[in-house]
Amino acid sequence: MKEDLSVVLVSNRGPVSFVQSDGNFQTQRGAGGLSGALDWAARQLGEHSIWIASAISSDDKEAMETGATEDLPEELGYRVRLLDIDAGVYDQYYDAVSNRMLWFANHCLWDELHIESFGQRELDAWNNGYEPVNKRFAKVASECFEQDALVLFQDYHLATAPGHLRKAHPGQAILH
To answer: Which of 47-51, 56-60, 113-117, 127-131 has the lowest mean pLDDT?
Structure first.
């Protein structure tokens, strides 16, 4: 069911991560500057925002399974939707493509690698990891907004997700 949202934030890493202790889940603020900046914006928007991110750790995934993520709107002031991505697919998406290829390209260090072309391994990682994950993020984002919402995709991890969303929703306001 679509909800009345103003902003859909989409990133690989979310605003919090879960840590299990004595059978209970505690949240820790997400690492890096992205979390602090977007968390502030999401809190200002409150119920008019949702943050979609990967469930990265096993504790994140278990928190999803046990329903611990349902307490996040009360704790944070906005909704969070975590995606459970298969570990092998995530490795291709995050490590093989995002970190080993796109990080260098986006930081103008491509020439330092002295790579003139990619092999089958990189192509497989793109086709079986990076693209499917980006498509999934775009699909989930499309389930979380009304037409007047702004969808913000963050960082090179999700470089192709806006295009997938644009195909399905040509008039949607999208930032990347």
So the answer is: 113-117
Q: Is 114 part of any domain?
A: no
| 157-to-13, 26, 138, 165 alpha-carbon distances in Å | 10, 26, 12, 15
Tokens of 162: 């806006």
Residues 162 and 158: their CA atoms lie apart, in Å, by 8
Residue 111 has pLDDT above 70, yes or no: yes
Residue 66 lies in a domain: yes
Give pLDDT tens digits for 124-145: 999 999 999 999 999 999 998 7
For the chain, what is the mean pLDDT?
91
**100 assigned to some structural domain:** no
> What total number of domains does the chain contain?
1
CA angle 57, 72, 49 (to 5 degrees): 105
Look up the CATH number of the domain holding residue 14.
3.40.50.2000
159 occurs within a structural domain: yes
Q: Which domain holds residue 47?
A: 7-86+133-175
